[in-house]
Amino acid sequence: MQRFTLGLAMFLSAFVGAALCAPAPFRKKDKPFDITKASVALWGAFNKAPVKFVRGGGYECNWYSQRYVGTWRREGDVLYITESTDPRDPESWRTYTIDLKPCGREGLFRGTGASFKLE
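The structure assignment produced for this chain is given below.
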């Protein structure tokens, strides 16, 4: 009986030791947020606006009954939005650069540090 108990103790200690030393499983890398699924943008702390990011780069936003159109592109963790309320006027175009957090749903405007979030 002592041999059995001793053998069982050795087996269990080896098994538990091996389990404790086993490498942790790799964490799956999160897929970046699909911007084309966003329907609302939170510009700054309180300003929500309906937004549409179209595959291929089209962009629309309605900001306090003002319609903005333009383009968007994402390069890694940086989102670029170029928009205008009057596309025929070359002086009306503005480009915003947003440094996204790893989740891809939110970030900060480059230059101002204002917040940006997609819902």
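Interim note for the steering committee: Residues 2-21 form the longest helix (20 residues). The radius of gyration is 26 Å.
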